[in-house]
Amino acid sequence: MHTIETIKVNDSDMEVFLYMPEGEGPHPGIILAQHIPGGHTGIENDDFTLKTAERYAENGYAVAVPFIFHWWPKSESMELKREEFRDDWTAQDLTATYDLLAAREDVDGGRIAIIGHCWGGRVSWLGACHLPRLAACVMFYGGRVKLAMGPGTPPAIDLAGDIKCPVAGFFGNEDQNPSPEDVDGMSAALTAAGVSHEFHRYDGAGHAFQSFANPDRFHPEASADAWEKVLVFLGEKLA
Questions:
Q1: Full set of structural domains in the chain with CATH
Q2: What does the longest C-alpha to C-alpha distance in the chain come to?
Q3: pTM above 0.70?
Q4: What is the Rg, in whole angstroms, of the alpha carbon atoms belonging to the chain?
Q5: Bond into 26 cis (ω within 30)
Q6: Cα dihedral sign for 135, 139, 142, 146?
Q7: Alpha-helical runs (H) found in the chain
Q8: What pLDDT, in 10s, does the model give residues 1-55?
């Protein structure tokens, strides 16, 4: 079960789906950044992200899923949203989501992570760059980190020095966005910035290898291994 809260971000209404675990808490929290299909018709039609949120809640985490595409009508094309996507707007969305989650009496604001898949993987990196209070960042096959998105914004990879939390990454070696070379670049940027990180790479797996709704991409062995590893990582960093 989940609830939906609507908050204002620069006078634009943003839906945030909340999944709460059993018990009084205070619970560790997760900001879960949606992957790209949810950007067109809304989070309510993004089965992968919402079922992933449920799964984290079942493991004891309070999960907030912000609809970061609220700046455009839901009926607008995904192509336009990709073209007009702005990192400065998204940083505001993530800050507002963090504040919403951390303000809850049943959430420990000092134990909040950000996680994302695909488009959301890049968003999780971006969130770690802008939210110094985060306890951890997890990115699943997030591409376009080397690109600038929005007027006057630097490439997200250039902000690695602003990341204050440990990072875990999960990537398929058959992926081309990010490619293995892109992953090498992200790791190098984190190393240069002194950011603790662990990257896990899977042979035979491509982009979206955890996407159970996409049989052409789903890689059950890599997905299961990544799920086990991410729970260990969160258990250590959000303890």
A1: 3-237 (3.40.50.1820)
A2: 45
A3: yes
A4: 16
A5: yes
A6: positive
A7: 38-41, 47-58, 78-84, 87-102, 119-130, 180-193, 220-237
A8: 799 999 999 999 999 999 999 999 999 999 999 987 666 677 777 889 999 999 9
